[in-house]
Amino acid sequence: MGAYILRRLLLIIPTLLGIMIINFVLVQFVPGGPVEQMIAQLQGGGDVFEGFAGGAEDATLSGSEENSEYLGARGLPPEFIKELEQQFGLDKPPLERFLNMMWNYLHFDFGESYFKKQTVTELVLDKMPVSITLGLWSTLIAYLVSIPLGIRKAVHDGSSFDTWTSGIIIVAYAIPAFLFAIMLLVLFAGGSYWQLFPLRGLTSDNFDQLSLVGKALDYFWHIALPVTASTIAAFATLTLLTKNSFLDEIKKHYVMTARAKGLSEGKVLYGHIFRNAMLIVIAGFPAVFIGVFFGGSVLIETIFSLDGLGRLGFEAAVGRDYPVMFGTLFLFGLIGLVVNILSDLMYVLVDPRIDFEKRAG
């Protein structure tokens, strides 16, 4: 197992490098870099992308304005533009910038945000609690609901209970998380019906003044809707996975043998079937958590006005904040690759009979 883990760890290096190279190259061809963002802010343009919609107006420019590399740089001295390029490190060739960036990342030095005046590490640590809240609670609730429901559906396969719960699961799987989040807002957060839950944030303004019990209740009151929206897709997938795993095990010969020995259905189900059927479900916990953590976090955090990692990455991409963009991409890519290894280790912990080294050989 040690050799297998070592190979997987070594594979992280070329995989992560490939991810960074592809994204870095793509960014070089995307218009509206950080210099143009700064120019738009200085001139009160608000959004640099407004300049790309005015092609007809820009075509009327003459002289030095036509030759300007940056849209919206009219009236700004070239020396100031060069200072901006030096400030953002864009005065160096792309290859040199990439190599310097990767060298710093090897030391976990992700630099400082162009526009937020904070280091990338500080920003990530500041936003991490929100994303962990969504990812952890959504994953735990999905498992707590899906496993008992999937087991009961497998035991009562083909019954009316199995039929109507399957209908609910199909609907839950088909509804995108962001659309379900909007529905929750409209129904329960003062949209057009009931004002039962807060519209935004993780805590109330008077959170510090509440008692310990009051803080806990306030916290769960605020996360109820976003966690529900994040859970919906994972809940549907895990329920079907659990049901199918149990159905596959129920049909095997060792189950028939256990029943022939006179064991009760409870002992057969939880003493023999459970461990084998739950192998793939339990081992997939890290991957499910990362999927919820990264997958729908951008839209969920935006809809519920939560200041987490998903929203941070989205705002960095829109604002061309390259240190935050590439820093979070590197961290998320590294975490995702490590979690894949942890998933394999979970398989071995749940069932020691699995030997990845023999499979690799």
Automatic annotation (TrEMBL):
Record-linked InterPro entries: MetI-like (IPR000515), MetI-like_sf (IPR035906)
Subcellular location: Cell inner membrane; Cell membrane
CDD domains hit by this protein: TM_PBP2
Keywords on record: Cell inner membrane, Cell membrane, Membrane, Transmembrane, Transmembrane helix, Transport
GO biological process, one term: microcin transport
Similarity section: Belongs to the binding-protein-dependent transport system permease family.
Protein name: Inner membrane ABC transporter permease protein YejB
Organism: Roseovarius aestuarii
Lineage, top ranks: Bacteria, Pseudomonadati, Pseudomonadota, Alphaproteobacteria, Rhodobacterales
